[in-house]
Amino acid sequence: MNRFEYIRPRSVAEAVAAAAIPGSAYLAAGTNLLDLMKIGVARPGRLIDLNHLPGLDAIETLPGGAVRIGAQVRNAELAHDPEFARRFPAVAEALLSGASAQLRNAATVGGNLMQRTRCAWFQDTASACNRREPGTGCDALGGENRMHAVLGWSEHCIATHPSDFCVPLVALDAVVEIEGAGGRRDIPLADFHLLPGTTPERESVLAPGELVIAVRLPAEAAGFAAHARYAKLRERTSYAFAVVSAAAGLRIANGRIVEARLALGGVAAKPWRAEAAEASLAGAAPDADAFRRAAEIAMAEAKPSGDNAFKIELARRIAIRALTQAAAGTPDRLPALPASSFASNAGAPNMGGLHV
Amino acid sequence: MSDVQRMRHGSSIGLPVTRRDGHDKVTGQARFAADNHPTGMLYAVLATSRIARGRVAFLDVAAARAHVGVVEVMVPGNRPALAIHPDDKSVPFSFKMDLLQDDRVRYAGQSIAVVIAETLEAATEGAALLAPRYAAEAVEVTLDAPGAFVPETVGVGAPAEQRHGDVEAGLDHAAHRIETTYETPLQFHNAMEPHGIVAAWDGDALSIDMPTQGLALTQMRIAAFFGIRMEDIHIRSPFIGGGFGSKLLAGPQVLGILAAKLVGRPVKLVLTRAQMYGPVTHRSATRQSLRLGAAADGQLTAIDHHVRTATSRHDDFLEPSGGISHSLYASPAIATTADAVRLDTGTPGFMRGPGEASGSIALESAMDEMAAACGIDPLEFRLRNYAEVEPITGKPFSSKALRDCYAQGATTFGWAGRPLAPRQMRDADGLLVGWGLGTAIFPAMMFQAEARAVLRRDGTGLVEAGIHDMGQGAWTAFAQIAADSLGLDIDQVEFRGGRSDLPNAGIAGGSGHTATAGGAIHAAGGQAIARLTELAVADPRSPLFGAGNVGVVARDGRLVRWDDESRGETYGDILARAGLDMVEGQGSAAADQATAEQYSLHAHGAVFAEVKVDPELGQVRVTRLVGAFAAGRIINPRMVRSQYYGGMIWGLSFALHEHAAMDVRTGRVMNADLAEYRVPVNADVPSVEAILVEEEDPHVNALGIKGVGEIGITGTAGAIANAVWHATGVRVRKFPIALEAFSGA
């Protein structure tokens, strides 16, 4: 294993100061970073462990109704917080549709935002990857790239951001609280991740050494609670990243959509907010025609980056699915298989000897 | 359990005894190879090639050596000498190996150096510091590579071309014809336990902890490599964390033995998960073209099954997918042919159901397509083409309860009333529902095995055979056979296995281990009992005096007269009076040529699948699997059910998930980990049921065992593919079935 310094700061200020030295990396749960270190993709010289910092593990309701989620709150903890899940059900559903129970127990809110793409060429140090090593090229172009981006990609990088959690967050106008040497600042999540352009190595607006300390959801985000869903298409029933996913939130009054929120996952290097599609839904009846139109608008700019034209149609369909389910109303209880086509995990009537 | 009771052979065989190693396994006490840490042990880590063809031009050995904790770096220049060349295939089932013989690279993932260090971490970093530079050459890794050739044999010496009847005439006269091509992907075994070894030399003697499916063959292979005597090599392999054909012999672990020799200390070498996608064999991709002809009444008139497969550029193993068409469905004309290309990959090998698994999904899909073309229910179609004798040879089956499998499976599944046309069924949530069927078949193979059985004066028994437990339950099943062979309760018999210093129990492969080693144990116990009987019936002081060998039954630690069970005595009494501490029996078992020439020997089954498919998104879930299998005598129904479950889930994996994504430009597998090389998770398998169909086989072998380890894959993969068609109306012919297939639907 490569040698690195391990630093356990006692405060956010100490952490940020420690990270000022180039080659530093923050360590949260390490569910992604440690894997990348093992395969040589990440080789930080200093690991700054956030797991013992005070004050980053709270879920707080702020005056006025916004909720502030500390960066070290674990995915499972947040998803199972009854008040949070009641007010932001699509966020809870997205969290529970991701990874495995073990990973969700460890992975953090901040780490989820900061996770890297699972692009196979990014993870293979023998391949060219502009994101990993600027200027080397992109071997994903021309490879088996059926899972890659269909929106916002460039010739320099076609990777996707793998998060489920970020998809409803961006739909709900989440704000990222950042602390750095220059002080504290807020960035809307929609602006946090960067599209690749000519600099795919720049994945977020974080300056070197800056630390995500919290994510805030505004009070208005709870206004979608009655009609909020996350839908995720994946290639096995559990423990798989989204091929495409969508988060939808609707405010419905008198049979009309007052306000809509829609974001897509698995389609781009960032969680993809579909604002024009949202605008098309305002004032419309929550019906199939409106949802089909919105989905078309959401994907209007999409183009395949390789063998993935099929994802464009699937992204439309998952958007329609999320909107349709949202319109039908948030269920009282999350399904056993959250965000899945197979809502129920029940066995068949004449069941065999092996059950889950 | 009435079915089990009827099948009981003695006091233990047929009972669902729980795993004898279960407690140790669930409490972490079962010691697998890599759990051993002899004093002074060092850690070895492989450095593997990132290119698939070319030469290693430079390794920064100095940098690796300079790393703290690194003891030695083994490269071709300092690798200890071997007695034979690594390309010398010195024993059966062996392949050419890459043991640092030179700077050539034949496939991605090939070992190019071994770093030996005081810690795993230091060895890992040392391997990274080697920073190899290569002289790379262009690679070929697809089935469309140039230079296709027709091999003489496929699999293990099977003719590449087999013909019976006139296929072209059969097709010409057919009322219905289909001509289809199916593609199966490159797959890797992915046993949970990676290949590993702990090797320690003591002079010319070698002590090894290593998982192996073939103790004696491995011992022979290593003896040949190092020019030492087999009896100086001691291998312990008490538990194997899955082998599936990839652990038949010593693989890259030989490098661990070489490393131990180089540094003069014990060495542990364990492959990483990523390193399991190169040097430990795999299942080649296949492209299978099937032409079927059927008369108006649905009787097949011809089966033509052509297989394109691939082997490595340097060695031969050709996935024998066409074999399945020889024995399953009655047809007056059958032809199976093969061709292949040579690729810059590791050599393919035996991967659970080699040939049968890949061939079955193609044949069962084609049968389903033909049933639809004929407008006949798929089960009825298979019954109309039921083979009363093996189609390609005309030989009778030693036993065949396939009709019972179809009937019991169909009843349990609820097959009746299935609509003929696809896309007719929906569930309450609007999901498309489909039902599919596949026939399972697997040859009943035997190899060669020996065993030793002892009856002791204290009334207990000892049975020894170098058997292999890969998780299938060998420790339990063989103990049951051993107990019955000695007429003792299972707890009265000490059973030893999993070591090379015991009688050669052959291999755990070809689903033939229980039949072969079990047969040897049965014979050894029988001989011990016969010797004890000789003592008793010749002794005027015994109540059995004069009864004769055939007049005596061994039961519950006693010999009794069969015609008067009140007359008998304990084993201990007989031995005590004879002044003996023990009697011993030797036994062996092997495939019987005469039987194989006279009969077709196969296990059969029928697998029924229900899938649900999201009509808009195309996501597929197998909501029910019901398999009914007839495989001769069942030694332990609990273990056997688990074997069927495992096989059926593997079949599910074959149909929907497994696929090594190789970058065709570089020959590297790009999803060499268990996150991205997809296998099913629990949520993918909500319900699986295995029915044990009673079958008595008087011919196949002494115990009437056919083997259950691989058959569950066959039938299942096709049943799922057929259910997907029935649900959606989309016939997918490229596996695994991917979302792309439905995005236009």
From TrEMBL, chain A:
A molecular-function term among this protein's GO annotations: FAD binding
Nucleus as UniProt keyword: no
UniProt cross-references to Pfam families, sorted A to Z: CO_deh_flav_C (PF03450), FAD_binding_5 (PF00941)
Domain FAD-binding PCMH-type, chain residue ranges per copy: 1-222
Keywords, alphabetical: FAD, Flavoprotein
Listed InterPro entries: CO_DH_flav_C, CO_DH_flav_C_dom_sf, Diverse_Substr_Oxidored, FAD-bd_PCMH, FAD-bd_PCMH-like_sf, FAD-bd_PCMH_sub1, FAD-bd_PCMH_sub2, Mopterin_DH_FAD-bd
Record-given protein name: Xanthine dehydrogenase family protein subunit M
Organism: Plastoroseomonas arctica
TrEMBL record, chain B:
Highest taxon listed in the record's lineage: Bacteria
Region (Disordered) location: 1-20
A GO molecular function held by the record: oxidoreductase activity
Domain Aldehyde oxidase/xanthine dehydrogenase a/b hammerhead: 27-138
InterPro entries in alphabetical order: Ald_Oxase/Xan_DH_a/b, Ald_Oxase/Xan_DH_a/b_sf, Ald_Oxase/xanthine_DH-like, AldOxase/xan_DH_MoCoBD1, AldOxase/xan_DH_MoCoBD2, AldOxase/xan_DH_Mopterin-bd_sf
Name of the protein described by the UniProt record: Xanthine dehydrogenase family protein molybdopterin-binding subunit
